[in-house]
Amino acid sequence: MEKIHAAITAVGGYVPEYVMTNFELEQMMDTSDEWIQSRTGIRERRILKGEGKGSSDMAVGAVKDLLAKRNMDPKEIELVICATTTPDMQFPATANVICDKAGMTSAWGFDVSAACSGFLFALTTAAQFIENGRHKKVLVIGVDKMSSIMNYEDRTTSIIFGDGGGCVLLEPDNEGYGILDSILRSDGSGRAFLHQKAGGSVKPATLETVMNKEHYVYQEGQTVFKFAVKNMADVSAEIMERNSLTSDDVAWLVPHQANKRIITATADRMKLSEEKVMINIDRFGNTTNGTLPLCLWEWEKRLHKGDNIILAAFGGGFTWGATYIKWAYDTN
Ligand code: UT7
Predict the structure, then answer these.
(1) What's the pLDDT tens digit per position in 277-287?
(2) Residue 1: is its pLDDT beyond 90?
(3) Domain locations in the chain as residue ranges
(4) pLDDT tens profile 40-53
(5) Catalytic residue (one of 22, 286, 289, 295)
Protein backbone atom coordinates (compact mmCIF):
# COMPACT_ATOMS: atom_id res chain seq x y z
CA MET A 1 0.00 0.00 0.00
CA GLU A 2 1.19 3.53 -0.80
CA LYS A 3 2.24 5.84 2.01
CA ILE A 4 -0.58 7.94 3.47
CA HIS A 5 -0.52 11.49 2.14
CA ALA A 6 -2.65 14.44 3.21
CA ALA A 7 -4.88 15.37 0.28
CA ILE A 8 -6.88 18.54 -0.18
CA THR A 9 -10.43 17.30 -0.71
CA ALA A 10 -12.43 20.55 -0.52
CA VAL A 11 -11.86 24.31 -0.68
CA GLY A 12 -13.82 27.26 0.75
CA GLY A 13 -13.33 31.00 0.42
CA TYR A 14 -14.64 34.35 1.53
CA VAL A 15 -14.00 37.94 0.52
CA PRO A 16 -15.84 40.92 2.03
CA GLU A 17 -18.34 42.76 -0.15
CA TYR A 18 -16.74 46.20 0.01
CA VAL A 19 -14.48 46.94 -2.96
CA MET A 20 -11.77 49.56 -2.40
CA THR A 21 -10.53 50.71 -5.82
CA ASN A 22 -7.28 52.47 -6.65
CA PHE A 23 -9.43 55.51 -7.39
CA GLU A 24 -10.64 55.54 -3.79
CA LEU A 25 -6.99 55.43 -2.63
CA GLU A 26 -6.28 58.40 -4.92
CA GLN A 27 -8.71 60.39 -2.74
CA MET A 28 -6.89 59.35 0.45
CA MET A 29 -3.21 59.78 -0.48
CA ASP A 30 -0.82 61.02 -3.17
CA THR A 31 -1.01 58.05 -5.54
CA SER A 32 -2.58 57.05 -8.86
CA ASP A 33 -4.36 54.11 -10.37
CA GLU A 34 -1.69 54.08 -13.10
CA TRP A 35 1.19 53.86 -10.57
CA ILE A 36 -0.44 51.12 -8.51
CA GLN A 37 -1.42 49.00 -11.52
CA SER A 38 1.95 49.30 -13.23
CA ARG A 39 4.06 48.70 -10.07
CA THR A 40 1.91 45.98 -8.44
CA GLY A 41 -0.80 44.71 -10.82
CA ILE A 42 -3.52 45.64 -8.31
CA ARG A 43 -6.74 47.32 -9.46
CA GLU A 44 -8.87 46.88 -6.33
CA ARG A 45 -8.99 45.03 -3.02
CA ARG A 46 -11.73 43.98 -0.60
CA ILE A 47 -12.12 45.59 2.83
CA LEU A 48 -14.04 44.14 5.78
CA LYS A 49 -16.37 46.81 7.12
CA GLY A 50 -18.46 46.74 10.28
CA GLU A 51 -17.88 47.27 13.98
CA GLY A 52 -16.63 44.21 15.84
CA LYS A 53 -15.83 42.20 12.70
CA GLY A 54 -12.48 40.43 12.56
CA SER A 55 -10.50 37.76 10.76
CA SER A 56 -12.58 35.00 12.37
CA ASP A 57 -15.74 36.30 10.71
CA MET A 58 -14.23 35.97 7.24
CA ALA A 59 -12.82 32.54 8.15
CA VAL A 60 -16.26 31.39 9.27
CA GLY A 61 -17.63 32.49 5.88
CA ALA A 62 -14.99 30.35 4.16
CA VAL A 63 -15.55 27.36 6.48
CA LYS A 64 -19.33 27.45 5.94
CA ASP A 65 -18.77 27.58 2.17
CA LEU A 66 -16.55 24.48 2.36
CA LEU A 67 -18.84 22.52 4.69
CA ALA A 68 -21.89 23.30 2.52
CA LYS A 69 -20.11 22.06 -0.63
CA ARG A 70 -19.37 18.76 1.06
CA ASN A 71 -22.65 18.64 2.98
CA MET A 72 -20.61 18.08 6.14
CA ASP A 73 -21.50 18.47 9.79
CA PRO A 74 -19.04 20.91 11.46
CA LYS A 75 -18.60 18.38 14.26
CA GLU A 76 -16.80 16.04 11.83
CA ILE A 77 -13.76 18.37 11.84
CA GLU A 78 -11.09 17.11 14.26
CA LEU A 79 -8.41 19.80 14.07
CA VAL A 80 -8.35 23.43 12.85
CA ILE A 81 -5.11 25.26 12.11
CA CYS A 82 -5.49 28.94 11.30
CA ALA A 83 -2.69 30.91 9.66
CA THR A 84 -3.13 34.61 10.35
CA THR A 85 -1.14 37.76 10.99
CA THR A 86 -4.20 39.66 12.14
CA PRO A 87 -5.73 37.44 14.84
CA ASP A 88 -9.01 38.60 16.39
CA MET A 89 -7.13 39.13 19.65
CA GLN A 90 -3.60 38.71 20.97
CA PHE A 91 -5.00 35.60 22.64
CA PRO A 92 -6.78 33.19 22.55
CA ALA A 93 -5.99 31.78 19.12
CA THR A 94 -8.35 32.77 16.32
CA ALA A 95 -8.73 29.06 15.46
CA ASN A 96 -10.57 28.64 18.77
CA VAL A 97 -12.90 31.53 17.98
CA ILE A 98 -13.59 30.10 14.50
CA CYS A 99 -14.38 26.65 15.95
CA ASP A 100 -16.89 28.21 18.32
CA LYS A 101 -18.55 30.46 15.72
CA ALA A 102 -18.75 27.70 13.07
CA GLY A 103 -19.92 24.96 15.44
CA MET A 104 -16.77 22.82 15.08
CA THR A 105 -17.09 21.81 18.71
CA SER A 106 -15.30 18.45 18.40
CA ALA A 107 -12.11 20.05 17.08
CA TRP A 108 -9.02 21.37 18.80
CA GLY A 109 -7.22 24.26 17.17
CA PHE A 110 -4.33 26.67 17.16
CA ASP A 111 -2.86 29.50 15.08
CA VAL A 112 0.28 29.61 12.97
CA SER A 113 2.16 32.89 12.63
CA ALA A 114 4.46 33.05 9.61
CA ALA A 115 3.23 36.21 7.84
CA CYS A 116 2.60 35.68 4.10
CA SER A 117 4.01 32.11 4.20
CA GLY A 118 1.64 31.16 7.02
CA PHE A 119 -0.75 29.13 4.89
CA LEU A 120 2.08 26.96 3.55
CA PHE A 121 3.55 26.50 7.04
CA ALA A 122 0.10 25.58 8.39
CA LEU A 123 -0.57 23.18 5.50
CA THR A 124 2.68 21.29 6.16
CA THR A 125 2.00 21.22 9.91
CA ALA A 126 -1.53 19.94 9.35
CA ALA A 127 -0.35 17.28 6.90
CA GLN A 128 1.71 15.62 9.66
CA PHE A 129 -1.45 14.82 11.65
CA ILE A 130 -2.95 13.06 8.61
CA GLU A 131 0.25 11.25 7.58
CA ASN A 132 0.83 9.83 11.06
CA GLY A 133 -2.78 8.63 11.28
CA ARG A 134 -3.72 10.85 14.21
CA HIS A 135 -6.56 12.64 12.41
CA LYS A 136 -8.80 12.04 9.38
CA LYS A 137 -10.32 15.51 8.86
CA VAL A 138 -8.17 18.60 9.35
CA LEU A 139 -9.11 22.11 8.30
CA VAL A 140 -6.39 24.60 7.32
CA ILE A 141 -7.41 28.25 7.17
CA GLY A 142 -5.50 31.27 5.83
CA VAL A 143 -7.14 34.60 6.61
CA ASP A 144 -6.26 38.22 7.24
CA LYS A 145 -7.94 41.53 7.89
CA MET A 146 -4.91 43.53 6.74
CA SER A 147 -6.95 46.75 6.78
CA SER A 148 -6.83 46.54 10.61
CA ILE A 149 -3.04 47.13 10.60
CA MET A 150 -2.81 49.47 7.63
CA ASN A 151 -1.73 53.10 7.81
CA TYR A 152 -3.66 54.71 4.97
CA GLU A 153 -1.30 57.69 5.16
CA ASP A 154 1.59 55.42 4.04
CA ARG A 155 1.26 55.16 0.27
CA THR A 156 4.25 52.82 -0.09
CA THR A 157 2.60 50.00 1.88
CA SER A 158 -1.15 50.45 2.22
CA ILE A 159 -1.88 50.22 -1.50
CA ILE A 160 -0.96 46.53 -1.75
CA PHE A 161 -3.00 44.93 1.03
CA GLY A 162 -6.59 43.70 1.25
CA ASP A 163 -8.87 41.50 3.39
CA GLY A 164 -10.07 37.94 2.80
CA GLY A 165 -9.34 34.29 3.35
CA GLY A 166 -9.97 30.70 2.50
CA CYS A 167 -9.66 27.18 3.82
CA VAL A 168 -8.95 23.63 2.69
CA LEU A 169 -9.94 20.25 4.08
CA LEU A 170 -7.20 17.65 4.41
CA GLU A 171 -8.07 13.93 4.39
CA PRO A 172 -5.91 10.80 4.07
CA ASP A 173 -5.11 9.40 0.62
CA ASN A 174 -3.19 6.22 -0.15
CA GLU A 175 -3.28 6.38 -3.95
CA GLY A 176 -0.44 8.86 -4.42
CA TYR A 177 -2.46 12.10 -4.38
CA GLY A 178 -2.10 15.00 -1.98
CA ILE A 179 0.78 16.96 -0.49
CA LEU A 180 3.90 15.20 -1.76
CA ASP A 181 6.70 17.58 -0.79
CA SER A 182 7.43 20.90 0.93
CA ILE A 183 10.48 23.11 1.29
CA LEU A 184 10.02 25.73 4.00
CA ARG A 185 12.54 28.33 5.13
CA SER A 186 12.89 31.09 7.74
CA ASP A 187 15.49 33.83 8.18
CA GLY A 188 14.78 35.97 11.23
CA SER A 189 17.36 38.55 10.26
CA GLY A 190 14.86 39.73 7.66
CA ARG A 191 12.47 40.93 10.39
CA ALA A 192 13.93 44.44 10.21
CA PHE A 193 12.38 45.02 6.80
CA LEU A 194 8.79 43.91 7.40
CA HIS A 195 7.13 43.97 10.80
CA GLN A 196 4.76 45.70 13.20
CA LYS A 197 6.79 47.79 15.61
CA ALA A 198 4.55 47.87 18.68
CA GLY A 199 1.88 45.80 20.38
CA GLY A 200 4.05 42.79 21.24
CA SER A 201 5.92 42.00 24.46
CA VAL A 202 9.00 44.00 23.43
CA LYS A 203 7.01 47.20 22.96
CA PRO A 204 3.55 46.98 24.46
CA ALA A 205 0.91 49.49 23.41
CA THR A 206 1.19 52.95 24.97
CA LEU A 207 -0.28 56.28 24.06
CA GLU A 208 3.06 57.08 22.47
CA THR A 209 3.16 53.96 20.26
CA VAL A 210 -0.33 54.79 19.03
CA MET A 211 0.58 58.44 18.35
CA ASN A 212 3.69 57.28 16.46
CA LYS A 213 1.59 54.91 14.33
CA GLU A 214 3.61 51.88 15.39
CA HIS A 215 0.69 49.46 15.28
CA TYR A 216 0.68 49.31 11.51
CA VAL A 217 2.65 47.28 8.96
CA TYR A 218 6.13 48.68 8.51
CA GLN A 219 7.72 47.60 5.24
CA GLU A 220 10.87 48.54 3.35
CA GLY A 221 9.33 47.62 0.04
CA GLN A 222 12.34 47.54 -2.25
CA THR A 223 14.39 45.30 0.05
CA VAL A 224 11.49 42.92 0.59
CA PHE A 225 10.88 42.90 -3.15
CA LYS A 226 14.46 41.82 -3.91
CA PHE A 227 14.41 38.99 -1.35
CA ALA A 228 10.93 37.89 -2.48
CA VAL A 229 11.87 37.69 -6.15
CA LYS A 230 14.99 35.66 -5.47
CA ASN A 231 13.77 33.33 -2.74
CA MET A 232 10.32 32.53 -4.11
CA ALA A 233 11.81 31.73 -7.51
CA ASP A 234 14.71 29.72 -6.03
CA VAL A 235 12.53 27.57 -3.82
CA SER A 236 10.00 26.94 -6.61
CA ALA A 237 12.78 25.82 -8.97
CA GLU A 238 14.28 23.68 -6.20
CA ILE A 239 11.05 21.80 -5.49
CA MET A 240 10.58 21.10 -9.21
CA GLU A 241 14.12 19.78 -9.49
CA ARG A 242 13.85 17.66 -6.34
CA ASN A 243 10.70 16.01 -7.73
CA SER A 244 12.02 15.73 -11.31
CA LEU A 245 9.26 17.99 -12.62
CA THR A 246 9.68 19.90 -15.88
CA SER A 247 7.58 22.93 -16.78
CA ASP A 248 5.44 20.62 -18.95
CA ASP A 249 4.66 18.46 -15.91
CA VAL A 250 3.39 21.40 -13.83
CA ALA A 251 -0.29 22.16 -14.39
CA TRP A 252 -0.52 25.21 -12.10
CA LEU A 253 1.61 27.60 -10.08
CA VAL A 254 -0.26 29.03 -7.09
CA PRO A 255 1.88 31.99 -6.05
CA HIS A 256 1.51 34.31 -3.09
CA GLN A 257 -0.08 37.49 -4.43
CA ALA A 258 2.16 40.30 -3.16
CA ASN A 259 3.16 41.93 -6.41
CA LYS A 260 2.46 40.86 -9.99
CA ARG A 261 6.14 41.45 -10.82
CA ILE A 262 7.23 38.90 -8.17
CA ILE A 263 4.71 36.38 -9.54
CA THR A 264 5.99 36.87 -13.09
CA ALA A 265 9.63 36.47 -12.01
CA THR A 266 8.78 33.18 -10.27
CA ALA A 267 6.82 31.85 -13.25
CA ASP A 268 9.64 32.83 -15.63
CA ARG A 269 12.18 30.98 -13.50
CA MET A 270 9.95 27.88 -13.60
CA LYS A 271 9.54 28.41 -17.38
CA LEU A 272 5.76 28.46 -16.99
CA SER A 273 3.51 30.39 -19.36
CA GLU A 274 1.03 32.82 -17.78
CA GLU A 275 -1.97 30.52 -18.51
CA LYS A 276 -0.62 28.14 -15.87
CA VAL A 277 -0.34 30.80 -13.16
CA MET A 278 -3.19 31.66 -10.79
CA ILE A 279 -3.39 35.44 -10.52
CA ASN A 280 -6.13 37.33 -8.69
CA ILE A 281 -4.01 40.13 -7.22
CA ASP A 282 -5.77 42.54 -9.61
CA ARG A 283 -9.05 42.04 -7.70
CA PHE A 284 -8.01 41.11 -4.16
CA GLY A 285 -4.53 42.63 -3.62
CA ASN A 286 -2.30 41.01 -1.02
CA THR A 287 -4.44 39.27 1.60
CA THR A 288 -1.31 37.83 3.32
CA ASN A 289 -2.37 34.39 4.64
CA GLY A 290 -5.46 34.48 2.43
CA THR A 291 -3.85 34.59 -1.01
CA LEU A 292 -3.13 30.89 -1.62
CA PRO A 293 -6.47 29.42 -0.46
CA LEU A 294 -8.33 32.22 -2.29
CA CYS A 295 -6.56 31.19 -5.51
CA LEU A 296 -7.47 27.52 -4.98
CA TRP A 297 -11.05 28.58 -4.20
CA GLU A 298 -11.38 30.59 -7.42
CA TRP A 299 -9.68 27.98 -9.62
CA GLU A 300 -11.15 24.85 -7.97
CA LYS A 301 -13.48 23.99 -10.88
CA ARG A 302 -10.57 24.09 -13.36
CA LEU A 303 -8.39 21.67 -11.38
CA HIS A 304 -8.25 18.01 -12.31
CA LYS A 305 -7.36 14.86 -10.45
CA GLY A 306 -3.66 14.22 -11.00
CA ASP A 307 -2.70 17.86 -11.75
CA ASN A 308 0.77 18.73 -10.45
CA ILE A 309 0.45 21.99 -8.54
CA ILE A 310 3.20 24.09 -6.97
CA LEU A 311 2.29 26.57 -4.24
CA ALA A 312 4.90 29.21 -3.40
CA ALA A 313 5.08 32.06 -0.91
CA PHE A 314 7.37 34.68 0.58
CA GLY A 315 6.71 36.97 3.53
CA GLY A 316 7.69 38.71 6.72
CA GLY A 317 10.17 36.99 8.96
CA PHE A 318 11.55 36.44 6.41
CA THR A 319 9.68 33.22 5.71
CA TRP A 320 9.27 31.45 2.38
CA GLY A 321 8.59 28.11 0.83
CA ALA A 322 7.08 25.91 -1.85
CA THR A 323 4.77 22.91 -1.68
CA TYR A 324 4.14 20.25 -4.31
CA ILE A 325 0.63 18.81 -4.47
CA LYS A 326 -0.85 16.16 -6.75
CA TRP A 327 -4.48 17.31 -6.91
CA ALA A 328 -6.86 14.66 -5.60
CA TYR A 329 -10.27 15.33 -7.16
CA ASP A 330 -12.35 16.62 -10.05
CA THR A 331 -15.18 19.02 -9.29
CA ASN A 332 -18.45 18.10 -10.96
O1 UT7 B 1 3.56 39.97 0.98
C2 UT7 B 1 4.67 40.05 1.80
C3 UT7 B 1 5.91 40.50 1.14
N4 UT7 B 1 5.74 41.80 0.55
C5 UT7 B 1 6.14 41.99 -0.70
O6 UT7 B 1 6.52 41.07 -1.37
C7 UT7 B 1 6.12 43.42 -1.24
C8 UT7 B 1 7.42 43.69 -1.99
N9 UT7 B 1 7.54 45.07 -2.41
C10 UT7 B 1 6.81 45.62 -3.40
O11 UT7 B 1 5.93 45.01 -3.93
C12 UT7 B 1 7.17 47.00 -3.87
O13 UT7 B 1 8.41 47.38 -3.29
C14 UT7 B 1 6.11 48.09 -3.54
C15 UT7 B 1 4.87 47.85 -4.39
C16 UT7 B 1 5.73 48.06 -2.07
C17 UT7 B 1 6.67 49.47 -3.91
O18 UT7 B 1 7.05 49.48 -5.29
P19 UT7 B 1 8.51 49.94 -5.74
O20 UT7 B 1 8.55 49.83 -7.19
O21 UT7 B 1 9.50 49.15 -4.95
O22 UT7 B 1 8.53 51.46 -5.33
P23 UT7 B 1 9.58 52.23 -4.43
O24 UT7 B 1 9.27 52.05 -3.01
O25 UT7 B 1 10.95 51.96 -4.92
O26 UT7 B 1 9.24 53.72 -4.85
C27 UT7 B 1 9.51 54.23 -6.17
C28 UT7 B 1 8.95 55.63 -6.27
C29 UT7 B 1 9.37 56.54 -5.11
O30 UT7 B 1 9.49 57.84 -5.60
P31 UT7 B 1 10.93 58.49 -5.92
O32 UT7 B 1 11.67 58.41 -4.62
O33 UT7 B 1 11.53 57.61 -6.98
O34 UT7 B 1 10.60 59.86 -6.35
C35 UT7 B 1 8.19 56.48 -4.20
O36 UT7 B 1 8.06 57.60 -3.39
O37 UT7 B 1 7.53 55.58 -6.24
C38 UT7 B 1 7.03 56.37 -5.17
N39 UT7 B 1 5.88 55.71 -4.62
C40 UT7 B 1 4.62 55.94 -5.05
N41 UT7 B 1 4.14 56.75 -5.98
C42 UT7 B 1 2.81 56.75 -6.18
C43 UT7 B 1 5.83 54.77 -3.64
N44 UT7 B 1 4.57 54.39 -3.43
C45 UT7 B 1 3.80 55.08 -4.28
C46 UT7 B 1 2.42 55.13 -4.54
N47 UT7 B 1 1.98 55.97 -5.49
N48 UT7 B 1 1.54 54.36 -3.86
Answers:
(1) 999 999 999 99
(2) no
(3) 5-179, 180-326
(4) 999 999 999 999 99
(5) 286
